[in-house]
Amino acid sequence: MPSNRLAAESSPYLRQHADNPVDWWPWGPEAMAEAERRDVPILLSVGYSACHWCHVMAHESFEDEATAAAMNAGFVNVKVDREERPDVDAVYMEAVQALTGRGGWPMTVFLTPSGEPFYGGTYFPPTARHGMPSFRDLLAAITDAWTTRRDELLEQAGGLTEALGQGARLEAGDVPGAEVLEGAYAHFRQIHDDEWGGFGQAPKFPTPQNVDFLVRTLARTGSTVSQAMVETTLDAMASGGMYDHLGGGFARYSVDRHWVVPHFEKMLYDQAGLLALYLHGHLVTGHERYRQVVEETVEYVLRDLRRPGGGIASAEDADSPTADGRSVEGEFYVFTPDQFREILGHDADAAIAHWELDRAANFEGRWIPARTHHRGAWERPPAVGEARRRLFEARAQRPRPGLDDKVLTEWNALWIAALAEAGAALARTEWVQAAVETAEFLIDHLRRDDGRWLRSWQAEAGAKHLAFAADHAALVDAFTRLAEATGQARWIDHARSTADAMLTLFWDDTNGGLFTTGTDGEQLVTRDKDLQDNAVPSANSTAAVALLRLAALTGHDPFRDRAEDILRLSGRLAGEAPSAFGVLLRALDLHHAGATEVVVVGDRPDLVAEVQCTHLPNAVLAWGEPYDSPLWAGRNTPAAYVCRDHACGLPAADVDELRRQLHG
After folding, report:
1. Contact predicate 236/198, CB 8 Å
2. 132-163 b/e with 16+ CB inside 10 Å = b?
3. pLDDT of 122-150, one tens digit each?
């Protein structure tokens, strides 16, 4: 059958649906005009390529001829990749949560031709079960209501639309005091799982920004309670099956309390967040096992996700093909003891014991390699290290999970920031160079000639969609981190220009904060703000941190002022729900502590290395090429200069003196 309109889209997720019998449209005014012409509702389906349940609903419903016929007859059907269009996803997710009290993907929403939502949910099964209607019964009910009770639907749509965009209506208050940080720590202490780490029960998400708050607390106080929480969580996450013991990198989350069984998709943003977290854990505790996680995570991304030229692909799928043509979740990653023996021969017993295949199967009769019963004991004897190599090579011969090869500006920027920091801290110059190459890829492929940043790039389709506030905020942070890692002034120039563009396009002059979409972007039924830190840090939280750090490096007060405006807008919410504002708490801590500004003048790699290899979460570093900043003014003597609260210490000419000032 001929492909539908999705065949030429840049999103691999959309192209996965190009051969469906559903007459899909991409999001845009053409789809709305068609719904208006036909006088039918829009059926909006939102998901992403690595989403297991998105694939399930696609196989059950979108590939079914009878279901597709009902969809085509009664609706204009629109497919959206939530990763390419987080603005569309956020608006209608808010609607679904208002209607049902919960959200998730796949997301299914019914809209008027003008885009106003009137009904929605997440996954709908092909037959009624567990209190959910069958998808076809739902389609029939919506079609009947549109035909016979349209006034009620339009009234509901109007009321629901009016209620959307709560973030845009939030009014600013005062910057909250440091007691919010104390309250956040108490909250995390209360909900921390002291036996298995992380927060709450199952399912468990890594939430690296919240665990990193505990690492900051440990670095500042040396608290044994904080140390126990940090080590329990870091050890448990990297011991379970959520961590890929053979290939490195982390799956999205664990379905159980013990971090054993993941949803197997591997997302770039998780690699970035967890890379930074384990780096900080290593620097603060000194544990080499955390450095091992850092190294293996970097190896995974640069080996399996890096594209020609330096861009990083978005994700690997949860599902992978089987020999009989099916697609099965986790198929690529699981083993049996017999498979270990077939691969390793007489050397199998040590590997079976090491990765706990000598215990009860942990995933549908097979085994996800794990160290759950040996948490914190990751040392690999030479024989086990060799077995790991052979198992990895054998696994590589299996059909791989699907790769979402689109390059997203925001996620790549998050990765650049983490990789640049890790490369500098661990003296891995090749990592810093890889971060530089990814940044140059973004500049070459995702920035138009007029300077406007774009959101998504894919090799066959090129770059599409105007970048959002979150893209700009992550870029500012990435460029600043590159300047600190390389000593090259050009990255400060890129950070400044991107910050200026962000504040011009997205700033709310009334209440402060950043709107999700720019003044030049598509106007949806509401223009909201991205405030809460979820799987990916919010635009406003990331911007608050990035602008405070950039202001400290450049002395440009408007950057600091806008960061403080974000704290006035969201700070109260961080006090009420710390778990949803982990990155904003980082900004609030930086605001109250003040930035420690370190300038290294002259060719002093020893002094630069001392700053880079020390966990100083509220410090910024200027070195190498001078740029326009008060930090460089009048400083010509080769030495390190440490400044706090507008006062500087004496020049530190040696590492011991610099160390004393940094920790004084």
Report:
1. yes
2. ebbbbebbeebbebbeeeeeebeebbeebbee
3. 999 999 887 788 999 999 999 999 999 99
